[in-house]
Design brief:
The protein starts with a helix and ends in a 5-residue tail after the last helix. The protein has 13 helices and twelve strands. It is globular and about 55 Å long. Strands 1, 2, 3, 4, 5, 6, 7, 8, 9, 10, 11 and 12 form a twelve-stranded mixed sheet that branches. It has helices at 2-23, 35-49, 60-69, 84-92, 132-137, 167-179, 184-195, 209-214, 224-232, 262-272, 275-283, 299-305, 315-332; strands at 27-31, 53-57, 78-83, 96-97, 119-131, 158-161, 198-202, 219-223, 237-240, 246-256, 289-290, 310-312.
Amino acid sequence: MKKAVGALAAVAGLLGWLGVAQAAEPLNVYSIWPENYARPMFEEFEKASGIKVNFLRFSSGEALARVIAEKGNPRIDVLFGGPVETFAAGIKEGIFEPYKSPSFDRLPARFKHADGQWTAIADDPLVFMTNTAFLKAHNLQPPTSWDDLLNPAYKNMLQMADARTSGTAVTRIFSVLEVNKRDEDKAFAYLKKLRQNVQVYTKSGGGGTLPVGLGQAGGGIFFIVDALETREKGYDVTISFPKEGIGSAAEAIALIKGAKHPAEAKKLIDFATSAAMQSKLSQHKIGFVPATPDVKTDPAVAAVLKGANIIPIDDAYAGANRKRIVDKWVKEVLPAQ
């Protein structure tokens, strides 16, 4: 009888533990990475940890605005992916809780906030991407200078992201600022000229890739991960870089202040900043550059980047000036015709 009671107690204890595990709420995340990049990574995390991830995808501007608006009662635990200037701007709003994952000390300085407010999970350079048939039809070489995009042949034939919603666009604008040594008069004079050739500003960073692939647009400026995906799908596009340089934004992750599931959130951050996840990028044909030095860049990505003049975006400068620069772009560049 005592043995039976003991066995029943053990079973009851096990069932109770399982009940708690099954009843546990899943981790809630806003992902700035598009679903086709984020979902495979979350599935890998779920397999490794047993923790379910519920996520909603937003462009970086939308995600940042939501987290700020929800600061008093956070609806998520983690902000995942997206250019570092978005996270730098979030620090000013007090929306993150510092956390340093086990991989923190292994990362180069530009891939982490000193206090652990955010940590990079990848690097994502911008590129010029053009439709190869469009280049041939207009007897053009792939653009290798920012000024090449001002060619009248591109009139109403460029697509790129809208800075009001997209981090890709913000990185683009800060690229132009860096190329012009942060001289805002020169940078915005260029952006106004470029506006004359823009067919449409898309809501998301990769929104113009399909039109360029189909030849509905001649070209645009995109993150390399989106350009490589377009080429992987079989579209005849050409990837090139401006000789003056172009920006690269660290893609980050951060713990939300007041997160309702902080322990689980930290496990996701541990996974995302580790070689375990970043080694999966290549396996899933996701063309980010791993942030951790423990994972080599996919050879196909490295080949595209060979010889490119890449400018790491200064997160402190971009974060401090993000709102002002975007407002200036909306006021001075967007209406220009």
